[in-house]
């Protein structure tokens, strides 16, 4: 046996005596709100994938990236749909209602996308990263 092999063998014998071999149980943390910008998928509090339309995802992701910040309907239209679209407040309200039905545990009592009466909408600032 050459010197390198002998050193390797000694190391292999020495390691188990220095390392803990007690199994450790690691629980995977599952956040109740998961959004993946690369796959464009939202995962709900039950761990189910929720597939969103392009604009639903864009709106959710925009609000998620600016948690706690209040946006007017006009600002949301500009930021998510672009400047070319005509602003129609009832369309955005309907759009948010449909999005809430898909992502909120209780759409009638939303906790992710919040209405700021008389101003617009915001994403809950307490949503985990």
From TrEMBL:
InterPro entries named among the record's database cross-references: OmpR/PhoB-type_DNA-bd, Sig_transdc_resp-reg_C-effctor, WH-like_DNA-bd_sf
Coiled-coil residues: none
Stretches assigned to the OmpR/PhoB-type domain: 25-125
Domain of life: Bacteria
DNA-binding segment(s): 25-125
SMART domains the record matches: Trans_reg_C
UniProt keyword list: DNA-binding
Name of the protein this chain belongs to: Helix-turn-helix domain-containing protein
């Amino acid at each position: 046996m050459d010197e390198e092999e002998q050193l390797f063998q000694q190391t292999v014998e020495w390691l188990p005596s220095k390392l803990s071999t007690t199994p450790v149980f690691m629980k995977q943390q599952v956040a109740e709100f998961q959004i993946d910008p690369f796959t464009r998928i939202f995962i709900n509090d039950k761990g189910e994938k929720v597939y969103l339309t392009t604009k639903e995802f864009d709106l959710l992701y925009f609000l998620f990236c600016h948690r706690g910040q209040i946006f007017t309907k006009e600002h949301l239209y500009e930021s998510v749909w672009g400047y070319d679209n005509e602003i129609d407040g009832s369309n955005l309200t309907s759009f948010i209602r449909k999005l809430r039905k898909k992502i909120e545990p209780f759409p009638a009592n939303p906790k992710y996308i919040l209405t700021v009466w008389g101003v617009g909408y915001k994403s809950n600032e307490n949503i985990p990263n």
